[in-house]
């Protein structure tokens, strides 16, 4: 990894942040950054690809702190009132991180926006948040937002990063200027920064992804976020020599806490991936030691592995044996008495013989030195976790929600049961309420929803945050049973969690995405988005033209796919096995509104998009 020039950087020996190191004296995120810059000024803080240099550039904690202070002085010169909302519509990068931290430093409130969100959603959030300043990545984005109608009355200034000449100037009552020109503006050297935030001030208004309706603005205070950061540092034990690879959007609370603020606390370096398509290459070039991801990334790797070995029974047997041996080794670490000790020598031999063929290639896909992979944002199938752990890649699942800043529970290396989402973080209390609902209380729980007192009241029960998820607590570990509102109840009264069906199906390399439905219907059905190359081979094998749209509804294709669905869901109760399918090749993306920023299904949108096909399916 190539770095920029500069003075010698005395980095010293890497240290792990001691438990309790983030004392009560560090009450806000600006205080956290100032403390980190003083602790390890010359250690690498961020890394990103510099197209002009055709290499990776590093920024130290001192450089980052200096940049944040300069931007903070520029923000102060705008004379915005304390608590004014600043919307940030930028891809993950060092500048985006510095802008976020500078907004916080002058007691303003970031409203992080997903850089790939659609203009309608962004315009709604700008209006709802009463944003006074917008930082946008490109002129095209601002033009798309502006084309929807007059901007919010509160908006005073728009800063455009790329192609600003196309939109710069006065736009009614607001000003549109180039971000670079604004950043290069004069700053009064030596002037003191304005008053920083209090721990009870807002650290962000983070809008939920809106899987079932209009997004709501979750109000998180500095106290909320700092409590979660402290608890996460104790659970995940990040170190100064760790490298995080960041690719989830900073508009999502999971990435903000676990992939942005946690590395500041630990002194770790964050490398920003260039894009999702380039993620495999960036993993190899940055060689992260910690990866914060959503299950879909791990599922796709598993599907690729299975597709690669599909034609060789020897390779399939080698994978099965290696995973089984590695899994038993994991259970011994967990002190599970059910593991037969007489198999220990055999497992050690199996690992030695097969690791180079099976385990090492998997680890190499992630750069070869990943010591912990964190999965959150959605449920991770236990089979995926078992494969990764069995092949020597520690994958730990957690559970959280935006309203809890967001991490509520998590497994940890050495205390990892992937069939659960782990134990409650320090300071977090849990209880099981009516209908088996998991409820949460703690210093990380949100202040409420922005301008929605009724929704805020409905989100709590006697001071406990209602998660909407059904769960069981067993020996201190939480097992998620399903989303209350998403449980499918068929016409015969049988219940099934759609995610169980979808996870079973997407393990098949043919099925890129799956959406299960059937509430009030006689049986479960699915919409399946097919992987293009796998479909081409599958259709050809049936004597169908894969390029013809009619092939997707051909009886031969549907019969073959439905038989494949039955095999993939054989472990589910019979009433949970889908009987009919709708096939499509059109991708489901955040751009077309069918996926959230963390790649979860937008179920309501999918129900609308395929509404007529679903009705026809039940008329067959």
Describe this structure in words.
- The structure is a single chain.
- With 620 residues, this protein is of the alpha/beta class.
- Among the domains are: 29-198, 3-Layer(aba) Sandwich (Rossmann fold); 487-619, GMP Synthetase, Chain A, domain 3, CATH 3.30.300.
- A hairpin with a 2-residue loop joins strand 22 and strand 23.
- 48% of the residues are buried.
- Residues 1-12 have low confidence and may be disordered.
Rg value: 25 Å
CATH class of the domain at 29-198: Alpha Beta
Distance between the termini: 58 Å
Oligomer category? single chain
Can you identify the CATH superfamily of the domain at 29-198? ANL, N-terminal domain
Q: Which structural class fits the helix and strand makeup?
A: alpha/beta
* Spatial strand sequence of the major β-sheet: 2-1-12-11-13-14-15-16-17
* Annotation field: number of helices: 19
Per the CATH scheme, the topology name of the domain at 29-198 is Rossmann fold
Under the CATH scheme, the architecture of the domain at 29-198 is 3-Layer(aba) Sandwich
In percent terms, what proportion of residues is strand? 15-25%
- Count of beta strands: 28
